[in-house]
Amino acid sequence: MLSIGSTVLTVEDITRAGDFWRAALGYVNRDEPGDDWVILDPPGKADWSAPGASLALSVTGYPQHYPPRIHLDLYAEDQAAEVERLLSLGAREVDWHDYPDDADWIVLEDTEGNRFCVVDTGPYPLG
Hints:
alpha/beta; 4-stranded mixed β-sheet
């Protein structure tokens, strides 16, 4: 049986991208970053097989493809506060005009041009 181990984002500057995603998600380096690769895990994740989505950053020699064919959806109880926080960390707003009237997401991109959505979930259920 297969399972998804990590989502890999291509980057040009691994230090800048790692700083952004560690601050954005509260993740930590699984191991010491290399010159072209780092895996970020939720804090407390004991090893690669433990639950929790990992994010890997890989330096590539080619520019981002637009529009990207894959993106992350980040869930937020307080979308406005999270968008503001992410912008302060270096995210950028994407000039995108295809939002439907009832959109519950906002499209941003990280410091490397990787797009992601901040989805308004409202309060998380208790339990």
